[in-house]
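Weekly sync notes, structure subgroup
Attendees: PM, AL, DS (notes)

Item 1: joint prediction request from the bench team. They want all two components modeled as one assembly rather than separately. Inputs as received:
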Amino acid sequence: MTTFDDATAVTKRDEGRYDAQADPRFALVLAGGSGAPPAVNGGVLMATVLRAVLDAAPNPHPVATSANFLRVPRLGPAEVQVTWLKQGKTASTARAALIQDGAVVVDMTVTTGTVPDGAVSAPSRAAEGYGGEALDWTGKQPAFPPLSDCVDLGRWPGTEGANGVAGFAAHVTVLLDPATTGWRDGEPAGIPEMLGYVTLREPREPDALLLALAVDALPPVVFGLGATGWAPTVELTWHMRAVPRPGPLAVATRSRHVSGGWFDEEAEVWDADGRLVAQSRQLARVGRGRIRPLRGADGVVGSAAEPLRGRS
Amino acid sequence: MTTFDDATAVTKRDEGRYDAQADPRFALVLAGGSGAPPAVNGGVLMATVLRAVLDAAPNPHPVATSANFLRVPRLGPAEVQVTWLKQGKTASTARAALIQDGAVVVDMTVTTGTVPDGAVSAPSRAAEGYGGEALDWTGKQPAFPPLSDCVDLGRWPGTEGANGVAGFAAHVTVLLDPATTGWRDGEPAGIPEMLGYVTLREPREPDALLLALAVDALPPVVFGLGATGWAPTVELTWHMRAVPRPGPLAVATRSRHVSGGWFDEEAEVWDADGRLVAQSRQLARVGRGRIRPLRGADGVVGSAAEPLRGRS
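Output from the run, pasted for the record:
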């Protein structure tokens, strides 16, 4: 069992009630040096709640997951509660929540169903004008660079856990297109886009739970605009579109609009066979400070928070 | 008061409980001639629930709304229940549900906050490397054709209400880029994209509630692939990014992937001042039949369902 599987494990206590953890091994550090408590990566929290939902789901895949991140979890025990609103052959929907001390930390709605697995899709039937399950169409894949050309981020700002715990970056390899890593040297590309690859450091093939991790694994896309402060996710919805084949997950993120302290971050996840396996969009807050990365030979090895200056 | 405002009205009965309607004036017809009961446009149902949420919200705008469409509503009375999970200065989150006969018809999670209003945004601060509310950035606007070049869809398939009710198309003007209307003549463009404009037929300026309508107002984007059957929305999440200025709403939709009977539909809504005011993505089911449009002088005036043939 990998650290990821152990950290996201749930134990059934009663019908629709599970014991879980906000696991310190995937902790992030809030605004560098601010003394704020460590958070846990949002994708890891989603995977934890999804385990409880899938435990009693009538369909195999989480086709639509909406998550609202309401509070920073305390590192430690939590409870997951699952309530089914509808159970059907094509789609079933549950409400689920990660709860600590009687308060909802993450609130989710999950629709389960069945998405294509394995075999190459049938040829497009679009031209024939028929719909239903025979229809198969995919947009153009983003231009991912070869994996060997990408930069291993190492411990980028925010990914080192507190209290001597290695945190998120110790368990997840994030390889980024060097064209989208200028923010590490204080030279952001000026556009909110990133391209990269996500794998666990331990050997483990991708599945629905790893897709939940992948859609929120890259650094906040506004780092590309130089806003490298802590950027908490408010709402994230992702759709599973196919069962991923073995291999690294290619992830492309972009933002379409940043204003009023809010930004959207869209992610597409493609598997090693070049299939679009997940899509997400999150609404998040732009960080108010900026974190000045301190680079070492293997990437960012520390960070120092600077107060915000020159705001209008 | 416009028909839209009347149809989406709610009356407070008790704390967090509101009387509402699944209003026949915005009814759609399920798969033409199938005898299935009429549905109500999903955007109109979202607007109804949002009224109840906003009635007691501590923040003015619905910045993130996730809706799961679980059951086809019966045309008639409904109840909206609202429960607040968190109330904060920056963001507050409520769960809300449209309920009929004790069953949840539409289940929603809504986060309220404040988005920019009115004034032209401040110049980009991205180059300075500062984050927070000063940062302002927007991606490229889709190439909307002039409104005068667009085709008034009239009563496109699915928009005529049953029982002599005029339905959705009688209250909402949908003008489409003629390059994306080939499906009306059995000649779909072969790509799942549409560009158009949405206004109410009655004079009424856009606001958050009309944005909820706009993100689900165009015909299903898979019509562009020839799949013109009934395409029920399963999950739809939309983000309000700015308060819209007066004038028609420009809406661009596209799909990125269609397989296994599922398709995503993304919508961007731009206001008359060229500002990105809303974004959405929905996961929906591809229709299993196809509807053969019967064209009249003013567009589609009827439709005939055909059974599905030639499926693999």
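Discussion: The two ends of chain A are 51 Å apart (CA to CA).
Action: AL to compare against the crosslinking data before next sync.
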